[in-house]
Design brief:
about 0% strand
C-alpha cells in the first residue's frame, strides 16, 4: 500500500518593510513621472495636429493667456496655505530653465529666420507651440496640485459620513451589500485620473471648476456609499 503525498503549495513570499517602502515611494514616483510624460506627449501631439488642420499657429499662445487669467482668480488654499499662482510660478521657472538648457527658443528663431523655406517657418511654429504647451501644462499642473486638497477634504467628509450611516444602518438591522461597496469603490480612482487627464491634455481652455467640481461630487458620493454599505465579512 502506497501513500500518496499531497503536493504542498509554494511558500508565500512575505514582503519585508524595505519592499513596502520602495513600492510606496519609488514606485509611486516612477508611475507619476510616466503619467506626466504621457500627458505632455498627448497634449503636444494634439496641439500639433490641431495646428495643422483645425486652428492657427497662435492657438497655444491664446490658451496660455487664458489659463493664466484663470489662475489669477484662485485664492489661497485653506489646507496648504499656498496660492496656486505661486506653485505655477515655481513650475514655470523649472520649465523655462529646461527650455534655456535645450536652447529651444534659439532653435525656433533660427527656423523662423529661414523665410525662403516655408517648412522651416512652420517648424518654428511647432517649436513655439511645444514651448507654450509646456507652460500650459505647468499652469494646469499647479491647479491640479491645489485641487488635490479639495479631493482629500471631500473624501474625508464622505468617508466619515458614510461610516456614521453604516453604524445607524447596522443598529437598525439593515442589510449589507458587498456589491454596492465594490462597485462604488471602483469608481473613485478612474474618476480622479480621468478628470486630471482630460484637464491636462485638453486643447481648449476650460475653467477648472467645471471639471473638478462634478468629479469631486461623484467621488464623494462613491466613497459615501462604499463606506455606508461596507461589508466586513
Amino acid at each position: 500500500m502506497t501513500l500518496e503525498r499531497t503536493p504542498r503549495g509554494k511558500p508565500k513570499h512575505h514582503k519585508d518593510p524595505w519592499d513596502w517602502f520602495f513600492a510606496i515611494t519609488l514606485g509611486i514616483g516612477i508611475r507619476f513621472l510616466c503619467w506626466l510624460l504621457s500627458a505632455i506627449f498627448i497634449a503636444v501631439l494634439i496641439e500639433w495636429v490641431g495646428m495643422m488642420y483645425l486652428w492657427g499657429p497662435r492657438h497655444s499662445q491664446e490658451i496660455l493667456h487664458t489659463e493664466i487669467q484663470y489662475l489669477g482668480s484662485f485664492n489661497q488654499n485653506l489646507l496648504t496655505g499656498l496660492y496656486p499662482s505661486d506653485i505655477a510660478g515655481a513650475m514655470v521657472d523649472w520649465v523655462d530653465k529646461g527650455i534655456v538648457f535645450f536652447r529651444l527658443r534659439e532653435i525656433s528663431a533660427s527656423l523662423a529666420s529661414s523665410t525662403h523655406n516655408s517648412m522651416s517657418v512652420f517648424a518654428s511654429y511647432g517649436v513655439e507651440a511645444f514651448i507654450n504647451t509646456l507652460f500650459i501644462f505647468s499652469v494646469r499642473l499647479a491647479v491640479c496640485v491645489s485641487a488635490l486638497s479639495g479631493f482629500a477634504l471631500v473624501c474625508l467628509v464622505a468617508f466619515i459620513d458614510g461610516l456614521v450611516e453604516r453604524d445607524i444602518r447596522r443598529a437598525c438591522g439593515g442589510t449589507e451589500s458587498a456589491m454596492i461597496y465594490h462597485n462604488t469603490k471602483r469608481l473613485v480612482k478612474p474618476a480622479i485620473m480621468l478628470s486630471f487627464g482630460i484637464y491636462m491634455t485638453s486643447p481648449f481652455s476650460i475653467h477648472p471648476t467645471i471639471i473638478f467640481l462634478p468629479i469631486m461630487a461623484l467621488v464623494g458620493i462613491s466613497i459615501f456609499f462604499a463606506a455606508k454599505y461596507f461589508k466586513k465579512y
